[in-house]
Amino acid sequence: MRVNLTVNGRPMTADDVWEGESLLYVLRERLGLPGAKNACEQGECGSCTVYLDGTPVCACLVAAGQAEGRDVVTVEGLATSGGGPDAGLSDVQRAFVDAGAVQCGFCTPGLVVQAHALLADAEGVPRDADIREALAGNLCRCTGYEKILDAVRLAAARRAGADSGFRT
Amino acid sequence: MDFLRPRTWAEALALKAGRPEATPLQGGTDVMVEINLDKGRPAALLDLTPIPELREWSREGVEIRVGAGVTYSRLIAELGTELPGLAQASRTVGSPQIRNRGTVAGNLGAASPAGDSHPPLLACGAVVEAESVRGTRLIPIGEFYTGVKRNALAPDELIRAVRVPAATGPQYFSKIGTRNAMVIAVCSFAVALHPSGRRVGTGIGSAAPTPRHAPRAEDFASGELDWDGRRPLDPGVARRFGELVAASAAPIDDVRGRAAYRTHALAVMARRALGWAWDDFRGNS
Ligand SMILES: Cc1cc2nc3c(=O)[nH]c(=O)nc-3n(C[C@H](O)[C@H](O)[C@H](O)COP(=O)(O)OP(=O)(O)OC[C@H]3O[C@@H](n4cnc5c(N)ncnc54)[C@H](O)[C@@H]3O)c2cc1C
Ligand code: FES
Ligand code: FES
């Protein structure tokens, strides 16, 4: 079947899509967007997190046909939309780099999208409990999470214009 | 495999009548896992997400009618006051990404004994609104679960909504798991106080082939509680309530826990949950 959808602001079409295929497969294998990662295909790891009509979801659990006519934003779409002085990186991505929150990087795209969603809704720097809750569906096998929490706090503090006292 | 995309509810019912073997697809958090892991390949997927009215909830008399497409995230954000037990249970489901897609209707469709929405639905006396081209059937929640991962839906029926009486008293949900997120219940328990009828409702999860009530515990507590004077809960009554809840379960040993542990944990959860609910009731007098 054919699926038409908007990805990162651009209308796209995928052909010969199998009816049981996931949105994740369409993004990675048919539309050339390998940012969202495929690790578990069962909703457990969050490495495939993308925005679907503005809501973060596991792309591996969305049937391709369910994305027909809908609006998808992947981690690739955040890089340009964030702007700022840092050569196209969004502020959340910049904070992940600065805080040392990236090791192998496999979990990073999903965490960046989920952290982006958290900060879009948060006022000021979110409480640790809220950060942990927001990121509870994203697994990282490398960092031990502390630097990831640092990255989220750093991004939030910079948005609030109060990053001077922050140490990583 | 066919991918069926009805635009309207009437079209969905007609498609299901013509293709009773088609698998309804809502949030996909159960269905897509099965397909991805090749645990079964449906003959057809019937995508219900395009149908706008399924995403709505409404107040109808004393009931809240929750459309089949209302996600856990929306239930938590929008119905925490009217349906506190179901909202608490929803908060414990999976992760934010899962709650952004998963629905109570999907939980009912899957009918896993461990599904988190079932105990509060039982404790509140919910009714499942099933519909087919033949008409609408209101199935009391206690008759909905017919076996392990089996429910009372006919092959041509779809869940249109679940009708849950709005809370008239405190409600609590309690769940045992190995971490605070992304966990299938080892066992779970819900309690709801219905002060106008002087009744206590209960629901047990993950400790029997199906989710179920604890009828003897309900009768016992309903009779013992001091609904008029609102005296503090007698510790002996609370303990006995816990024992009767545990006695209503029929747990097994499995990878998540042993039967003996489940029985013990249920008694503890039930005793505590009744205490929290009763304290709230007394405080709000
Ligand atoms: C990582 C992960 C964590 C999870 N954690 C939990 C948890 O903590 N607690 C919990 O209870 N569950 C959990 N689940 C299971 C799942 O999220 C829930 O069962 C959820 O409620 C399913 O809803 P859905 O809309 O995604 O259903 P779907 O996957 O779309 O459907 C599930 C079943 O219901 C049927 N169905 C769907 N809609 C209808 C309808 N309108 N009429 C008739 N049948 C219908 C489908 O055919 C299918 O059989 C988890 C799943 C994942 C992947
Ligand atoms: S690949 Fe989707 S959650 Fe792991
Ligand atoms: S950095 Fe390797 S999994 Fe997170």
Characterize the structure shown:
The complex is a heterodimer of chains A (168) and B (285). Chain A contains six helices and five strands; from the N terminus they run ββαβββααααα. Chain A has 168 residues and is an alpha+beta fold. Chain A has two domains: 3-76, Roll (Ubiquitin-like (UB roll)), CATH 3.10.20.30; 79-159, DNA polymerase, domain 1 (Orthogonal Bundle). In chain A, strands 2-1-5-3-4 form a five-stranded mixed β-sheet, sandwiched between helices. Chain B is 35% helix and 23% strand. Chain B has helices spanning 9-18, 31-36, 72-79, 84-91, 96-99, 104-110, 118-124, 215-224, 235-248, 259-283, and strands at 2-4, 23-25, 44-47, 57-60, 63-67, 127-132, 135-140, 145-147, 150-151, 158-165, 171-176, 187-194, 199-205. In chain B, α8 runs antiparallel to α9 and α9 crosses α10 (259-283). The mean pLDDT of chain B is 97. Classes of the chains: A alpha+beta (168), B alpha+beta (285). Chain A binds chain B through residues 1, 18-20, 22, 41-44, 46, 49, 55-58, 60-63, 65-66, 68, 114, 117, 133-134, 136-138, and chain B through 1-3, 5, 25, 27-29, 31-33, 35-37, 41-42, 44-45, 47, 49, 73, 94-98, 100-101, 180-182. The structure holds flavin-adenine dinucleotide (FAD) and FE2/S2 (inorganic) cluster (2 copies). Chain A: It comes from Microbispora siamensis. Chain A: InterPro entries: 2Fe-2S-bd, 2Fe-2S-bd_dom_sf, 2Fe-2S_ferredoxin-like_sf, 2Fe-2S_ferredoxin-type, 2Fe2S_fd_BS, Beta-grasp_dom_sf, Diverse_Oxidoreductases. Chain A: Keywords: 2Fe-2S, Iron, Iron-sulfur, Metal-binding, Oxidoreductase.
